[in-house]
Design brief:
Elements lengths: L1 E5 L6 H10 L5 E4 L5 H4 L8 E4 L11 E6 L2 E6 L11 H9 L4 E3 L6 E6 L2 E6 L12 E7 L3 E7 L2
Parallel strand pairs: 1-2, 2-3, 5-6, 6-8
Antiparallel strand pairs: 1-9, 4-5, 7-8, 9-10
Length: 155
Amino acid sequence: MRIGVLGDSHGIIKNVNNAMRMLKNAELVIFTGDYIGDIKHLEGEYDGDVIAIRGNCDSIGEHEVVKTILGQRFFICHGHKYGVKYTLDNLYYRAQELKADVVIFGHTHIPYYEETNGIIMINPGSVTLPRGRSKKSCVRIDLGEKIEVEFLEVK
């Protein structure tokens, strides 16, 4: 199963569209928050499923979702409630509590991948406002016997 992950679009729908062109074969799209309305315009244009999480700049939506996908337990949140700009410890401990295999989060605008003690943590970065030395980005996950993660530069 192919999963597309993007977030932190901050009102620039053009960048969401550019990312979606790169993720066109995804059966599921996960949006990590901050301008949840940017992903809502996909309804009717995209045939797959969408999970959209509320970010700190959003006033609607779920703050976090736990979903089992092909036997893997995903914990999806924006990350601001766990202080991810300062440490990932709180997010990691929450993932342990939830017995998550994969954590998807945003908020930092910096792409991130790490696997620790069987928990994979992924931040797609931002499709609009990258921070640090990163570029506009999204993530493609191929979920099968193993989890393959690829960061894509959004142009």
